[in-house]
Amino acid sequence: MTATLERRTRTRVIPQALVYEVLDGKPFYYKNYKEVLSKKKTLEAIMGCSTLQAELISYIMEMFFTTVKPFNNQYRIYCNEIGSHIDHRNNLSNDIAIFEKSVLTPDKINTKYAEVPAKVVIEIDIKADLSDPEDSGYVYRKTQKLLDFGTEKVIWIFTLYGKILIAEQGQDWITRSWDKDVELMAGHSFNIENHLRQEGIIQ
Question: By the number of CB atoms within 10 A of the CB, which of 55, 77, 98, 137 ranks highest?
Answer without folding.
Answer: 98
